[in-house]
Amino acid sequence: MNRDLLLGVREARALAGTAAEWLRRGVSTGDLRKALAAGLPPGGVRSAVGFVRHRLVQKLPAHAGAMPSPAVTGRPGLMTCAGPGAEHVFRPLGEETRCGRCRAERASSSTEEDRRTQPLPWRDRLADAGA
């Protein structure tokens, strides 16, 4: 990506929802990158966040009707999160159905009783075995 378009973490998070809409509409990450970085102004970009925001909004592809979620369209590795809040996608590592953030929020809100019914971590099981 062009150095003129580097964003800070806060700026990138602010634009993530709009960029995710491109992915929901079937655009690959490579094509999204090309749409944002192609044909930069000859004099450079004054505000990377403003420029990227403008491109994300103005070049957004037409909505293709009721498109299925990215996991259904065959986008490799992407899955719609089953967690609460706005619809978002993630790349699962195994059989999980929630993104890391939703799993962490769920774990932090679980009760002590829930924790007792969950299997012990391997270190605790090893210590219980007397090894």
Any overview of this molecule?
There is one protein chain. It contains six helices and two strands; from the N terminus they run H-H-H-E-E-H-H-H. The chain starts with 8 loop residues before the first helix and ends with a helix. Strand 1 and strand 2 (89-90) form a beta hairpin. By secondary structure, the chain is mainly α. The model is unreliable at 65-74 (pLDDT under 50). The longest helix is centred in the N-terminal third of the chain and has 16 residues, at 9-24. It has helices at 9-24, 29-37, 48-58, 100-109, 112-117, 122-128, and strands at residues 79-80, 89-90. The chain has a two-stranded antiparallel sheet.
What brief labels describe this structure?
single chain, 131 residues, mainly alpha, 2 domains, 45% helix, elongated
Short structural summary:
The chain is mainly alpha-helical and 131 residues long.
Q: What order do the SSEs take from the amino end to the carboxyl end, as H and E?
A: HHHEEHHH
* Sheet with the most strands: spatial strand order: 1-2
Mean pLDDT across the residues is 78
Percent in helix: 40-55%
Quaternary state of the chains: single chain
Biggest sheet record: 2 strands, antiparallel
Share of residues in strands: under 5%
